[in-house]
Amino acid sequence: MRxxxxxxxxxxxxxxxxxxxxxxxxxxxxxxxDTGEAAEDQASTSRSGLGxxxxxxxxxxxxxxxxxxxxxxxxxxxxxxxxxxxVTRSVMVAAVAAVVVVLVLLVARIVQRQSPATVLGGLLGxxxxxxxxxxxxxxxxxxxxxxxxxxxxLLVLLTTLVLRRPLVGIFVGLLDPRVKDWAEDxxxxxxxxRATLLFVxxxxxxxxxxxxxxxxxxxxxLGAAKIAMGLPAFAVIAYLVWLMHRGLxxxxxxx
Length: 255
Prior knowledge:
Helix content is 72%, strand content 0%. It has 255 residues and is an all-alpha fold. α4 (67-88) packs antiparallel against α5 (91-111). The chain is elongated, with a radius of gyration of 22 Å.
């Protein structure tokens, strides 16, 4: 995927023959420029994740995982916690450092006027995990929020399948107007049911691998499993869903 990069407004630099007149600068024009840059930043941010790649003619791994920033926001807190815990054997040091790095990432998004929603969710999970780990003194407790989140996600996915409204179908129907009528199309329902089952399988594997590691206190192994089964696994699933979605669109065009 193509990396999602923050938008940046380009202002023409003044030439020596035409020096800037700061006193006559139009505040309204400056405000419009700032607003335009903010909107461009927001648009660039929205071009990442599964929703972006589903509408592209070519699959972009970078877009699917949110580009370099998405990787940093997903991997850095866990990686930092694992490394510092292994090196210092201090739950306090590792947990506080993980929270601090998420705060830095959050401030960076706010300063660049980008949506902080994804980082806020990560901050909540990391902060709660840090509190649990510090209170118990067990590094493995840092991962409890992630385990619970995986379990809830699995329950939601299964519920939508039971209700015959697979979550991937709902999600794609909102993002791609070409398939907004997916619920009335038997072919589309089958496609998005299979796509939802892929995510069910991913969350089942996460719980099957990570829960035993958590219960046995394998902090380093749990951190490695969390990272490996995070963005890399999601990118594979996103690619498969993209292929299924493109196949459905192709069949619709032939009808």
